Fold:
Amino acid sequence: MEQDRRYSQMSDYELKQEIALLTEKARKAEQLGIVNEYAVLERKIIMAKSYLLNPKDFIPGEIYEIEGDPGVYFKIDYLNGVFAWGFRLGGKKDEEALPISLLKKL
Structure:
């Protein structure tokens, strides 16, 4: 039995293969109407895509648009791995973490 590897241990090539596999599984789950499985697979895809990005390209203090949520902006306070910690502008003042693949430069 093969043990699953962490995304942080995978090469870019392996991550791209994983994303393709997860995308196919998500498409099938969506077609079959399995909403919960589709949501989990979408989150896995977002996480895998984060490991393809360089966290150094995301600057604390900068404001980014949140992918898939037009008109909503996120200000980064600090980064921890592939997560950007900060606040949504105009929203609740609760600190939250978003995978960097969800952030889009303005």
